[in-house]
Design a protein that fits this description.
By secondary structure, the chain is α+β, with helices and mostly antiparallel strands. It is built from three helices and three strands. A hairpin with a 2-residue loop joins strand 1 and strand 2.
Amino acid sequence: QDVIDLIPKDKAIKFLVMPVQRAGNTLVVAMADPTNIEAIDNLRFLTRSKITPVLATENSIAGAIEKYY
């Protein structure tokens, strides 16, 4: 839950992302489009963490947002 709290629900929905895990100053984020630099930059600023994107389907991210937020 601590990792989920790093990204507000509205941002998770807007960028279709889901935080997965945090290791030190690095946040692993599941994204439908891991090449979306705008989303990565926004999340980096928001969380003050280095963002490591991993690929996930839009459906799996949407399902995770519904379940965990």
